[in-house]
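Input set for joint prediction.
Command: fold jointly, output tokens.
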Amino acid sequence: MTADSNRTDPAPAPARLKSAGALAFNDANVLFVGDSKAGVVHAFDFEEGGFDDQADYQLGRAETFEGRTLINGLDHELAALMGVPASAVVINDLRVHKPTGQIVLSVHRGRGPNATPTIFKVDRGRLTLLDLDAATHTQMSVGPVHAPHETLEFGQRLNSLAITHIEHHDGELFVAGIANETFSSKLRRLPYPFTGAPSVSSIEIWHAVHAQYETRAPIITHTVTELDGVPTLIAVYACTPIVKIPLSALRDGAVVRGTMIGELGFGNTPIDLITYVNSWDQSRNALITNTNRSAVSIPLDALAAAEPMPHGDGVKPFFSVGGVAQYPMPLGGTLHLDTIDDTWAIVVRRGPEDPKNIQLHTLPMPFFFDRSDHAVEMNWSDGPDPFGYKSAPPIRFA
Amino acid sequence: MTVPERRCSATAAPISQAQRIVAAVLDDAIVLSRLEPGAVDDLLREPERVQLRRANSPVDTAMLIALQRHTDGVRIRPRFGLMAGARYALHVRLSAGEPWRTSITVPAVGAVAPTLLNVSPSAERVPSNLLRLYLTFSTPMALGQMRNHIWLADAAGARVESAFLDLEHELWDARQQRLTLLFDPGRLKKGVGPRMHHGTPLSPHRTYAVVIDQAMHSAAGRPLRQAVIRPLRTGAPIQTRLAPDRWRIRSPIAGTRRSLQVQFDRLIDQPGARRWITPVHPEGRRVDGEVTTDGQQWCFVPHRAWAPGRYGIRVASALEDVCGNTMEAAFDAPVGRPSAGSGGAWVGTVDVDGVSRPV
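tokens >
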């Protein structure tokens, strides 16, 4: 169904989704959707052509650090399509389908227990519904995984799990979540494709503190990448440390302590953790966006080489990880982020001039920096022009 | 909304189609009636002639809708339905560009103002290293309000900053009536940065309050009848493993349906006590009955009278006290615990015979 024309036949829309939260893609055309309400991860396998190629859509001009606002008032636009006030729109996650560059959003209409979950896609700047019926659907339960001797009692509902993040890597999904009754720190590892029998590996994630204490550590967000050629999970715990864990340690039933290599301060919650390539120097980096401070970029080489951080005495403040500098990135007000390619990132953000304006906006990489957002001396007509901005014609978007 | 018909007279102009059209809400759709057949065909052929929006929408984008032929008109079905109590603006471009507009209000459904039913734990004093609080409301609540409408205040009424973990995904139960407030684990864990720099959220032997301001509203949009200020008094922290062998168990009497009672030695997580503690029949099967617990004690009333015999009380390894301590390890576990595969249930025994006694 498209947003710019009304259909004359009834829209069937069988409700497979009970909720639509964390999103992930594999390397082909499979969209994964975390459904905390149903306690499952859905896999929607689209064929070729399931997503719209965005290659001819102009994202801005990276050479002059100029991005593009695809949609202003994103919450109002979604609300208008769904016939609700903007306050009833919840944008849960954003992910880019890398082969086509298409942006996908998981959205809830309403804030009550019967909120309608929906997946929207952005086609050349226009919001349209993603037709999930065009995909082959499978799903896998990620409900609390009990040891064989533990059974649910008295027909009670499962302890709810809020799926906080899903990542696909090499034919597997890594699913993190926070339970609402126990301080559970299970990381789940699911092979994809989903076969009939549940085959969820459950790993208890712990956190070592000094050489004295260990605590359970729910993961808020994570990514899988190679550090020095070793497939590694980089994760952020709810109690704020950044850790690295080799995938080889994440075996079913294992109890794993991540190597703590950094700490994000209190009063702040990390949102997204992605890896990207700096096209200027070909370095590989991780970026973490935050609710209450600007984002930070950490070179993966530094993560690989980082010594375990001291705890307690000598805990360094936020901007230092074992002596290696982290780079603050100008990404305040970012609600969701993903990369489109090595040149462009896409964010859902509070507008820099009006925080009530929720924007879908591109940011030139590698610095995630749109100079029109900032008071930069090159913006002035009589200011310096070391990069030749003034000789560039004003951008006109088609 | 009906349009009153004009009286005909010999010299009056014919009544236009626009004047005859009637719009009404039917189920989760809007039905337009008294359209001419040609007009219906036009609309079905060019559905963009029908534009539905919420009244006073700040943007031009129209709602996603589907059109169907319906008796003498069309049925306009919004993709996401209509909202009770909402007002909509409908624009229809009839043939030859004749515009037709109306406003439709969907009847409101009465909604009751929510109240806070319960805070758990509700004991006189809670340990100062409390990990979780549960707030139970009388009706489903709207998501996304915790950050702005719920906070912890100290004895002077000042807000304790960042006491709770601020997650985008709030921790509600399936009905969205019970909210889990998780104290910031970074401020609870020993030796971790946030605790080193900013201390624990609660100190021992103090008085605090959980504050919910009156703007907190139900999923149906009704705010609380009044703000809630619920005192929270702290005692000493509890930093040891759960030890069920310290619990006091009172055995029931065979042949009766009197309750099996367990008195805990500390505050146990109340939902966990409901979920993870189960009586086991002497023959190993489960015993059907009702559990009541407030986290300080646990009572089980069977559906059928107790048969005599040695029963088990099974405590699953997932059980936590209100500070997150488990049987396996304290919240801040000594190094080396746990090791893989070491978590198992604890099973106590209780003999049911003709006499009720503490075990």
